[in-house]
Amino acid sequence: MTAHVFLNGEWLPAEAARVSVMDRGFLFGDGVYEVIPVYSRRPFRLEQHLQRLQHSLDGIQLANPHGIKEWIGFVTKLAGEAEWEDQSIYIQVTRGPMAVRNHAFPKVVRPTSVIFAEPMTTPPASQREQGIAAVSAVDIRWLRCDLKTTSLLANCLLRQMAVAAGCVETVLFRDGFLTEGSASSIFVVKDGVLLAPIKNHLMLPGITYDVILELAASHGLPHQVRDITEAETRSADELWMCSSTKEVLPIVTLDGKRVGADGTAGPVFAQMYAWYQEFKATVMRAE
Ligand code: PDD
Question: Is the N or C terminus of the chain more exposed, i.e. has fewer CB atoms within 10 Å?
């Protein structure tokens, strides 16, 4: 049996990797996580993911149980040994087990760290070519959406709204402004300009979001990072969702209404998708 689950410093077969029911991650969702895409066994933007992990740990006042070099070592080992060439590597750190259930932190914290890989399933070509359907909802989450915490109940409920409506994603609005998707960042295109919401406490600082803005800058695509109203989102020429596992996808209907004039994947999307694939290939060759 292959030992591909890392649990608190040990590599174990999945069946043998066990966590206490008193773990605060299980009882309170008291933990943080990362999802790192791996292409041809090479982790993509690993340092940026590990920096965001540190930001999330700092935000919940939990000391990082491993140094950055250690994390790089664990992830690289798994990427090299897991059974798939393309993977998504999941990292989770919780505040560990407690003796009795108590909301306050234990005096002595023994964090639980977990890493495992899953096969990376990038979206089918049909979703890229024909686009996907989304619904919208009020962003009911807390005010620290910049932390990638495992307390994902609101995100799960919001994503399920999309699934129940036969859609792929739920686009979120707070106080009349676009924040992000239930598990993705959202971009708007209007009159040839790419619009991105400002990274703040109301959205996750997406790694894919950064790549897309870098590509817009390096290729001279006009872009603005600013508050985007719900009305602007609904009257967009193009709407995109992006994440480490979905890369970038065009949203062609929102709440059953066509996005843009004809509700098809737009030309700016097609250009960005090509740049994204080209960038991935260059980075993978260079590493
Ligand atoms: N989610 N916003 C939210 C709420 C997310 O959950 C995600 C990603 C993103 C995109 O971030 P990135 O580009 O760094 O993947 C934005 C991951 C994939 C998940 O929870 O599985």
Answer: N
Cα 143 to Cα 101, 104, 139, 197, 202: the distances in Å are: 25, 20, 10, 16, 6
Residue count of the chain: 287
Please return the burial class of 132, using the count of CB atoms within 10 Å of its CB with bins 0-12, 13-18 and 19+: buried
- Amino acid 221 reads L
57 CB neighbour count, 10 Å cutoff: 19
**Which residue, judged by its Cα, is nearest atom 6 of ligand 1?**
183
Closest by CA to 247, choosing from 192, 206, 286, 219, is 206
Domains of the chain: 4-119 (3.30.470.10), 125-286 (3.20.10.10)
Whole-number Å distance between alpha carbons of 70 and 223: 37
Report helix angle 267-286 to 207-219, nearest 10.
100
Cβ of 208 closer than 6 Å to ligand 1, yes or no, is yes
Which ranges in 134-234 belong to alpha helices (H)? 153-164, 207-219, 230-234
Cα 160 versus chain centre, distance: 17
Q: What angle do CA 282, 36, 39 make, to 5 degrees?
A: 40
pLDDT digits (tens, 9 = 90+) for 17-76: 999 999 999 999 999 999 999 999 999 999 999 999 999 999 999 999 999 999 999 999
**170 close to ligand 1 (CB < 6 Angstrom):** no
Ligand 1 center to 259 CA (angstroms):
23
